[in-house]
Amino acid sequence: MKIAIQTLGCKVNQSESSSMEGILRDNDYEIVRHDDNPDICIVNTCTVTAKSDYQSRQLIRKAIRSGAKVVATGCYAQLRSEDLRKIEGLNSIIGNSGKHTILSHVQNISTQERASSIEVHEPSDPLSYKPYASSRSRAFLKIQDGCNFSCSYCTVPMARGKSRSLDTASVLRSVNNLVSSGYKEIVLTGIHIGAYGTDLKPESSLLEIVKSIIDSCTDVRIRLSSIEPREFKPEFLEYMKKGRVCRHLHIPLQSGCDNILKKMNRGYSSEYYKQVIHSIVTDYPEISLGTDIIVGFPGETDNDFDSTVRFIKSLPLSYLHAFPYSARPNTRATGLNEHVSKATKKIRVKKLLNLSRKLKYEYNTRYIKTILNVIIEGKSSKSRYYNALSDNYLKILVNSESLEPGQCIPVRVISLTDKGLVAEPL
Predict the structure, then answer these.
(1) CATH, range 2-119
(2) How far, in Å, CA of 194 to CA of 383, rounded?
(3) Is the whole-model pTM more than 0.90?
(4) Candidates 3.30.70.1130, 3.40.50.2000, 3.80.30.20, 3.10.450.50; CATH matching 139-365
(5) Fewer Cβ neighbours under 10 Å: the N or C end of the chain?
(6) pLDDT of 399 strictly over 60
(7) Nearest one of 336, 320, 318, 338 to 328, comparing CA atoms
(8) Domain boundaries in the chain?
(9) pLDDT of residue 123
(10) Class for domain 371-425, per CATH?
């Protein structure tokens, strides 16, 4: 039986899709592309914005039209199952807590004729070791799930539950298996990885699990996914300087205006964020730093937005991601006054994306004629180039005749084009 898995949203969803793929492959199911006539299509949905909701519904409907039996899972299925029930032809709705039992759901759905099933429970199951299978060149290892924060715009705590950590032994078992499978880079991911270990007995931390991985496995580089500004530890930089942790951090800001940060319930000021960023770059100037910005939060005036732009320009960032605020059901932010128009949010996002392009260009130019370590991701649309990603999160076009996805190789950057940095293998 052929099964396709389609994934929307964050790196946690990507990791969980890879775990579902690993479980199904271990039980002799064939994993195929969504356009390769699958018998069953699993759509791993996202609900972080209204656009994500729309994209989730569109993927589900497209899969149904293909003739496949369709399973919807993920955060949209967890929080908005009543919306999905309205989609005719959807066979099964599974919340986040049901992903680890995907095998039984697939076995059940393969014998169904028309009946549909719904299984949505509170996501509170402890994390455990899972098989992993993916065609990606880098592995995404979920070491944590859930969130104990209460940002006023966010539904993640409702969709993912309280913070839970994968125990140290299971993390190390997963890492060793991924390395044995040939992965040269492992991205440690979670909804709130800075909270890793606080629920374990004995208590641990993100810094401790990184140290344990480094001590137990020498032939892999570790990349940290998004980490909150209050949870950065200077010791991470020491591991970066030794080449064991990728010299790249993504530290969400969300707004450069203190009034908006307070409304968002982010728990820090712009000045605190600035001190964290400058302390990192002062210690390690080569690092790549990225951030997230939400524009058009309720009550954000033109002056507030301009303050955010000025604040970003004062920071040594390499790139930023900008998103328009999207009202999410059952969040405190939906009850705030002075909601910003879609047109205004669109203009503000465009301005920040233009700024991000400028930041990327400036950071990229620093690495012309330098040597970088890259992971080969696959063949570029330009036949003589391979797409690659450097340890400091630069997208590289490698000019070569024969490389394999997943290889970790040194390259020399020779130029910067409108398509990105171009390099040659050493």
Answers:
(1) 3.40.50.12160
(2) 41
(3) yes
(4) 3.80.30.20
(5) C
(6) yes
(7) 336
(8) 2-119, 139-365, 371-425
(9) 87
(10) mainly beta
